[in-house]
Each structure stands twice: as C-alpha cells, then as structure tokens.
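Section 3.1: Structural characterization of target chains.
Under the original work plan, the team committed to producing a structural model for every single-chain target entering the pipeline before any wet-lab resources were allocated. The record below documents one such target. The sequence was received from the expression subgroup and is listed exactly as submitted; it comprises 327 residues.
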Amino acid sequence: MWEEYTDRAQRALFFAHAEAARLGAEYVGPEHLLVGLTRDAGSVAGRVLERVGFPPRRVRRALKSILVAGERRPVEDLVPHASFQRALSLAREESRALGYRRVGPEHLLLGVLRQGDGPAAEVFAAAGVDAEAVRQALIRFVSGGPASLLEVPGGERLRSRARRVVWLAQEEAARQGQERVMPEHLLSAIAQEEQSLAARVLVRQGVDLDRLRQELAASPAAARLAAGEVSLDPRARAVFEWALEEARQQPEADLGTEHLLLGILRQGDGPAAAVLAAMGVALEGPRQAVQAAFSGSPSLRSAIRKKLEASLNRRSEADRGSAAAES
C-alpha cells in the first residue's frame, strides 16, 4: 500500500503522524494531515493554497488555534481515524481520476477537502475559503500546461513538479519555434521552478538561477522551425533514461526534478551541460545533495509506515468483506 504514495505524499503522512503524536492526540485525523501538507509549502498543494489566498502558514495558525495539545504520546500508539482513512481513499480516487499512477500531496489535499468534516473543514469555512474553489484551483494547476503532455520515458512516474517541468520545457521549445524539446529546455524549466528540489540543489551548488536562465537563452539555439507540435530530441530522451536510472537508486522510484537534473548532467552533451560545467556544477555534488535530501529518521519513518500499511490493509479487507456480503 505504501508504494501508492509519492515521496512528498509520504512526507506529508509522516508529518501528520508526528503532529498528532506531538499534540498527544489519540488518533490521526484529516486535520493532522492538513498540517502535514502545509509543512511542504513548495509542493503543488502548498502553492495552490497560496494562490487562493490561504497560504500554508495561515492554515497552520488557524489549526493551531483550535487543536488542543495534550501530553505527547508515542507514534506507535496512534490510531487512524475513520475520517483520515476516508480522506486517503478519496485521495486515491482523485489520483486515478487525474491520470496519476501514485498519490501526491495535491491528491491528499483534495481528499481532505472532499472528506469535509472536522477541524480541517472548519478552518477553511472560518477563513471564508470555499473548499470547492480550492479543489478547482488545484485541478487547474495540476492539469495546466499544454493540451497534451509530451510522451517521455517514465512519464507515468513523473511527480507533479517534474510533470510541470516537462510542460514548461514544451512551452519554451514551442515559443522558440523549435520542433524538439532539448536538454536546455528542461534545464531552463527547472530554473523556472525555483522551489523544486533540483533548483534548490543548484542554488546550494552556487548557481544563480537568473544567470542560468540568461546563459541558456544566450546559448546557440537549434534551427528555428514553424511553430507546431514538439517532439523529444534524442539527447533529451537520454536525459529521461538517465533520470530513471538515478531514481531507481533512491528510496522512491518516482521521477522528480532532481532526477531530471542528474539526467542532464549524465547526458553531458550540448548547451545545458556546457552551461552547468562553466558554472562549476559536476555530477557528484548534486547527486550527494539529492541523496542527503532523501535521508531522514528511518526508525520513526519505519514505525509510521508500518502503522499506515496495517491500517490501509485493514480498510481493504473491510471493503472486500462488505462487497462479498452485498453480493
């Protein structure tokens, strides 16, 4: 069951359990999941909350004012509330409806909104924020970009932000009148997604993102052609293939912006690689930064994972039992 969730969604679930334990709650509810989602303001869920005028920091403050703190309890003692399980079930529905293979933070937020009861719903009502408006804004954001996403190796594994990078790369290629998406278009798109892990890794490597975009814009361009549908250049295809290999070396198999960056560095040919090399960025530095980003508290994560897996398995068994009884 755990494999259904992207690494960012897993972190939100991790934070939800940690928050419930900190507050001494007897259960994990949608309100704790909402807190967990606001801890990652750079996710699609966090950015959409910003767009509707209810930024993550305000959501946290609102929840803090109504959640009663008690004596901290061990995470292992927490019981998932029925409303929490329903929110997860609705999140899976939203993920499938939007054509995703895994559940991301944006789908968890939709699940919380659709569940519609308890403190999580109260904070939206008190702030005058229409939950359906948030849902529509989120769907527009997730479904935004070109009418059809370019087919790329591992496309079904793209996380939301990586998917947006592909969209931005398509738009950039089309804007330049080029028929193919190149690695430099992907790198330019990464630089535009400043809150992505790849962009943050570049900043830690001493890269100025504005300068990177300028350097890419000034690099020799491919022949400009009449605007139309763009396809994937063989060098860009190699980037995705290398990115997939990098993703398999991480705890999660989802394809993120950080893997695309490592793929660009491993592909190593053309303006994108040349600009990065001129800025002193080599493969090993970003790779180590990515590995460090995925490190955490394994013992606590393991405990939460086991607890959640057990809960989801019980829910699945109950659903199967109900279906059998009805038949």
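Residues 155-293 form a domain with the Double Clp-N motif fold (CATH 1.10.1780.10).
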